[in-house]
Specification:
Layout lengths: L5 E5 L2 E5 L3 E4 L6 E5 L34 E2 L9 E11 L2 E9 L14 E4 L20 E6 L6 E8 L2 E3 L16 E8 L14 E4 L9 H9 L5 E3 L4 E7 L7 H6 L21
Antiparallel strand pairs: 1-2, 1-4, 3-8, 5-8, 6-7, 9-10, 10-15, 11-14, 12-13, 12-15
The structure holds 2-(3,6-dihydroxyphenyl)acetic acid and fe (ii) ion (FE2).
């Protein structure tokens, strides 16, 4: 959720998920979502594999998102007769409806680990360079859904949390780049350092694979001239990225119907100047 909490009921119990928390519901689990008012957020559905914590490599035993901070529901059931209870299932890309005369949330107990869970992004332990250079944003991976090609993800969920920035001799914001992943970015709240202007909470950007992108002109000028002292960045901000080795298609709704496409987005780079001095 980006705006308003989600009051989620699942066959395993209930999850109350507030903005800056995320919720993962594995395939095939029945759930319903109750809202308390205006609501908005971001959904990522993977069609292959499951999300898990990334391998920590030399980071070692703990760090990034720690297992202890993932919360699963306690068993909860209701014995409720309901005429025409509608169950909506997605199968092969289409939605199907079945009706029954009782609540599906009548599972009395459960064991195992194929369960829905939630996680508070504020609990993420941030790792970064304390010497020089801008790290690959993979250091900010909360969860990954690996593909069967090693090192390549069906999807990574990456956050850009509040943190200290201390690198020396470095252009600290994201570098200008083209890469082999599709990057869908969203903003829960605050201002993303590389696009303080046009990128608003609830909005999204998509940089498809091998499409060049990077900070806007204002960010470039600011960071190029800033004194490199230790500095807090992203306080009051939560930006994130869904990154995939697959392509993401834009629907007609996203491109036209919603009338929210920023056709002038590219202009954020137009003022960048050439800085070669012979
Ligand atoms: O494009 C972006 O803003 C996301 C991003 C951030 C970063 O720090 C490095 C690479 C990257 O793709
Ligand atoms: Fe990027």
């Amino acid at each position: 959720p980006q705006q308003g909490p989600l009051d989620i009921t699942t066959e395993f119990g209930r999850l109350y998920v507030k903005p800056n928390e995320i919720c993962v519901i594995p395939q095939g689990i029945r759930f319903s979502v109750a809202l308390e008012g205006p609501s908005r957020g971001y959904i990522l559905e993977v069609y292959d594999g499951h999300f898990r914590l990334p391998d920590l490599g030399p980071i070692g035993a703990n760090g990034l998102a720690n297992p202890r901070d993932f919360l699963t529901p306690t068993a909860h059931f209701e014995d409720r007769s309901v005429d025409g209870y509608r169950i909506v299932s997605k199968f092969q890309g289409a939605l199907f409806v079945a009706t029954q005369n009782h609540s599906p949330f009548d599972v009395v107990g459960w064991h195992g680990n194929y369960v829905p869970y939630k996680y508070d992004l504020a609990r993420f332990m941030v790792i970064n360079s304390v010497s020089f250079d801008h790290c690959d944003p993979s250091i900010f991976t909360v969860l990954t859904c690996p593909s069967n090609r090693p090192g390549t993800a069906i999807a990574d969920f990456v956050v850009f949390p509040p943190r200290w920035s201390v690198q020396e001799h470095t252009f600290r914001p994201p570098y200008y780049h083209r890469n082999c992943m599709s990057e869908f970015m969203g903003l829960i709240f605050g201002r993303y350092e590389a696009k303080e202007g046009g990128f608003l909470p609830g909005g999204a950007s998509l940089h498809s694979m091998m499409t060049p992108h990077g900070p806007d002109h204002r960010c470039f000028e600011g960071a190029s001239n800033a004194e490199l002292k230790p500095e807090r960045i992203a306080d009051g901000t939560q930006a994130f990225m869904f990154e995939s080795s697959l392509s993401m298609a834009v629907t007609r709704w996203g491109e036209e119907t919603c009338q929210k496409l920023d056709a002038r987005y590219y202009e954020c780079w137009q003022a960048l100047e050439k800085h070669f001095h012979l």
